[in-house]
Amino acid sequence: MVAASAVLVAGTVSADGMAVAGAASRAPAAVAWGPCPQTSGKQAPAELECATVRVPLDYREPRGHQIKVAINRLKAKTSRDADHLGTLLVNPGGPGASGRNLTAYVARNLPGDLRDRYDIVGFDPRGVGASEPAMRCVDPAAYYKAPRPDAVPRGRAEERVLLSRAAAYANACGNRWAWLLPHLTTENSARDMDSIRAALGEQKISYLGYSYGTYLGAVYATLFPQRVKRLVLDSVVDPTTVWYESNLRQNAAFERRHRLFLGWAAEHNSVYRLGDTTKETSFAYYAMRDRLRERPAGGIVGPSELDDTFTITGYSDKVWPAFAAAWSAYVRKGEVQGLVDLYNKHGKVDAADENSYAVYLGVQCRDARWPRDWDKWRADMTRSHRSAPFLTWPNAWYNAPCAFWPVRGGEPVEVRGSAKLPPILILQSRDDAATPYRGALTVHRLFPRSRLVVEQGGNHGVSLGGNQCVDGHLSAYLSDGSLPARDAGCRALPEPSASARMAAESRERHDLLGSLGLLGLLGGR
Question: Catalytic site residues?
Answer without folding.
Answer: 211, 432, 460
